[in-house]
Automatic annotation (TrEMBL):
Gene3D superfamilies (UniProt xref): 1.10.1370.30
Keyword field: Hydrolase, Metal-binding, Metalloprotease, Protease, Zinc
Entries under PANTHER family matching the protein: PROTEASE M3 THIMET OLIGOPEPTIDASE-RELATED, PUTATIVE-RELATED
Named cofactor requirement(s): Zn(2+)
Family per record: Belongs to the peptidase M3 family.
Cofactor binding description: Binds 1 zinc ion.
Species of origin: Deinococcus arenicola
Span of domain Peptidase M3A/M3B catalytic: 171-557
InterPro entries for this protein: Pept_M3A_M3B, Pept_M3A_M3B_dom
Name of the protein described by the UniProt record: M3 family oligoendopeptidase
Amino acid sequence: MTAQLTRVERKLDVSSGASSWDTYAGRYDELLGAELTAADVPTWLQRWSALDAELQEAGAKLSTHADLHTDDDAVQARYQTFVATVMPPATRTGQALIEKLLAVPDYTPAADFALNYRRFRDAATLFREANVDLEVTHQQQRNRHSVITGNQKVTLSGEALTIPQAKQRLDSPDRQEREDAWWALTVSDMEVAPELDAVMLDLIATRRQLARNADEGNYRGYRWKQLDRVDYTPADCRAFHGAVREEVVPLTTELVGGLARELGLDSIRPWDYNRSNLLDPSGREALKPFTTGAELEALAREAFAGVDPDLAERFDRMRGGGLLDLESRPGKMTHAYCQYFPVDNEPFVLMNVVGTANDLQVLFHEVGHAFHGFYSGDAQPLVWNRWSPIEFVEIPSMAMEFLTLDHLGHVFNDEELARYRRSQLQGVVAFLPWAAQMDAFQHWLYAEAPAEVGIADLDARWLELDKTYHPFVNWDGLDEGIRAKGWQYYHIFQAPFYYIEYAMCYLAAVGIWREARSDAAGALERYRAALRLGNASGVPELYRAAGVEFRFDRQHIQGLMAFLQEQLAL
């Protein structure tokens, strides 16, 4: 075990009592039993916040540890014990505390708590006792997805690879190598597809029941309220889907078609298309700026120092504190994310790096989330006021992908940096059709799909949408059943209705970068100021603080696509 991995294990270690409700129950009972007047509320909230932070941190560490050890039954069991025995009484107690707060006569929340007071009120309205235990089932079902995909293996030319290691081969300039890797990944995906089908059917049933218990007509309506989506409607999302279909799909088709012509390909096949890293038009090897996780950390640290010394110092805290686990290995879940430990205001980044330029971009993304945690935690004492509404939460991460672009001279030479920059800009364009497809699929699944929806229906709907939003990928002669399984994606299982936010925030991040082209210092200060506002401000206010508009309509998309086309022409 490396020194860094040892630090990670030490950071994720929690006391044996963390999985016992008895560890928390007495202190929550004290809060419930306290005499509470309007004058008492601020101090009482501080006590409640501190206890909630302790509980949240235990759950976050146990969950992260389980993601790092999907093949360890004891680690999985400890997390599931927490989910099954701690979260239900915690949820019930949280509801009782909210009701106690809402019943305080003559209480007017301070300005920095007014928004969350309203959210508490709305959450209390949505609460149903029947959903407490059902949420345990919901989490257990999602964990089944983590275990299945975390233990997934790929065999390529007799070599056993993790999913991220196999996906790296898709960036090869050798078309046969790409095709071999694609087929190896496809074989692996299709082997686990029946298991994931079964998980999805269970999730659909559970999510529909959650909605019925809360007297909502469908799960979209339930989730809309649960996510506190008050600044836009499902109709606005539908308009976004149409705008992407009309404005971005043709642009992506043109982009991909030009790439095919430059490479001498008659068409772009599935193994030729990686939306995160389009093929190099000159057929050059993919950029490989580092080999090990430690090398990546050092490269990233210098880039952060170029943007701002304080960012570098905070990244150093993560490096030395066991708050980074970057390298891919068997038994580790294959996604990337930023977790948060609120007691000490510490973010934790999990990745699966294999040495690609895209890994560098993903690290900037995830550490951008970490900076959000740091700055909002510094400025917002109450745990509920940290981070932000989800419609803003991807801006700190995506903007950091762009703000680092001018500070990579130590990583790439001029030619390589031009390639990296072009790939990143192309990635924004190529991402939007995927985001629209993901969101459109979920609107159908949770608001329009038939009562007896089956896997064949999911496959058929995904296939229809993929032909609409990715018509430039040639699947002729291939089994459409493979293409139809594209919905078996992390967010569909783990974070329902959390995807359009990536598109909203990517558009905003491009806007921040556009401003930074003429005022780098001002753009950075606005970025940091917006992060400090945390979850105490609404979505439009947060966007304004960052120097951009909260918009994702067709006209706005047109303007940003024109800007990206100008930049790609440079």
